[in-house]
Amino acid sequence: MPPTIQTADPSSPASREAVLGAFLRAHRERLAPADVGVAPGQRRRTPGLRREEVAQLAGLSTTWVTWLEQGRPVSLSARALASLAGALRLSRAERAYLFELAGRRDPQHAAGEPVPPAVLASVHAIDGPAYLLDRQWTALAWNAAAADLFTGWLDAAGTERNLLRAMFLSPALQALVQDWPHRAARLVAEFRAHSIRHADAAPTRALIEGLMAESAEFRAAWLSQDVEDREGGRRGFRHPRQGTLQFEQLTLVPAAAPGLMLVMLLPG
What pTM did the predictor assign? Predict the structure, then answer.
């Protein structure tokens, strides 16, 4: 089946399609035939692989690859992009850039991604409360200070390791967080912004659908359609043993694991 051609914006001198085409062409020309097990054959007029060779390696048509390199507005599927990424031997960063340019979600990340040991170790190297969240904001790791602070979530009595579920379903965490109604609504707005790239993933859908059914407060916040950046700032807590606590929250995205978030609470 031939690619689907869409109407391009003629006023855009450097459209995403043009940038994508240049990216694919440059990486095709970098590959030597020997790199992918292709016989050199007769003398080549252009460096690297031929378009038909990339098409064969990716299981796509030569016309499709040609139109992509020419910057035509071709409708791309995630599966076809994954095949191209494999054929061109793209690195993790290059693959992520390809999917970002094409505006598609990488199916390789649908089931999560491994956590680099250094990222896990960094959680325990931080003096103050720190924790690591996955794409659905389930805690993957936390240090002793975080376990001591977050009663009803990361302590031994906590049963919900997902931050959203604990925020709306754990009475102990609700009692801990100062100005809970505002903080809970803000958390939902932040999650909406963060999760848009994997909103169709089964774990994300299951999380939202479950909370919609179990929490009227979450349902109201989600249906409000509010969207906020996760900016950090001052966070207040009413701890059952330590009393009133104030921290400055800082959230980082590890370069080695861009789907995760490292959250630190610094002395306020």
Answer: 0.66
